[in-house]
Amino acid sequence: MAAVVATPELRRPVVVALQTLAVAACYYAAGRLGLLRQLVVEGAVFTPIWPPTGVAVASLLIFGIRCWPGIALGALLVVLSLTSFEPSAIGIVAGNTVAPVCAYLMLRKAGFRMKLDRLRDGVALVFLGALASMLISATVGVGLLVLTGKLAADGFWTVWLGWWVGDAMGVLIVAPVLLMLYMARRPLNLSRWKEATAMTLVACVLVPLATHSPISLLFLVYPLLIWAALRFPHTGSVLCALFASVMATIAATDGAGPFARLSEVEVMMKLQAFNGSMALTALLLSAVITEQRNTRRSVELACQELVEVLEHLGNPSATPPPAADDGRRRQHGAK
To answer: What pTM was estimated for this model as a whole?
Structure first.
């Protein structure tokens, strides 16, 4: 009996340790992936989209606060892969750990639901999970660069803006995709596979054209986002936003398409404005549409139950509807 009781107690630390290592590995892999495309502003290198922040926030929402050591370990591995160990590295790791933890705590306080099926969930992820909490990592990271003499003081705000938006974009672009994959349930609904295939083909043609054409055609992505949000809320919109952000980042770092012949600061501003507005459109529009659909289903269900109750009142000899039957049982139990 003692062995049976002790088994769960021994299993829990093993599960937590495996989760910590998995989060650290995913964080490190996302960091290496994000470093493939970089921008240089004021002599400082940063990534327009920093995927590890999305991995960190999604991991905290899925596993809880206990996975924060995995985030810290992953951040440390990323820093060590870029430079030798320095005291300032501890501060950067701390900032990159505290920011997602603050995002998780604020989202939990706001009653955030991982399904993102309400407008308040989309707004909370944008303003609390991304814009507000990532102020910490950007301020700590750029502040340490200035204090250690690696960045001139007059370049603080330009680099800070790029760092902050890059971290926020990781939350807005990557976290919704990971949450969508976690919340997906089998069997998948394939009733509209023809439309999904057509949308995929259109995206594969339209997005590269919009992001690499010498004519500024970035606005062509928005009708595609609206189509995806209307027909495939969340799934279509977040995947479309992810694909468009990646393609725009590739074009910006290569200096191609609408980003050609621009200065470093202009490239950063144009890319971050496009990615940010697109992520906001995808998240908030899909959340509004999903919330309206859920409200309509609730109203239709309530109307159906009301019709069944009225039919029963008009014909008492008929079998009472389940809702009325359950209510009657609860009344008798209360008596």
So the answer is: 0.84
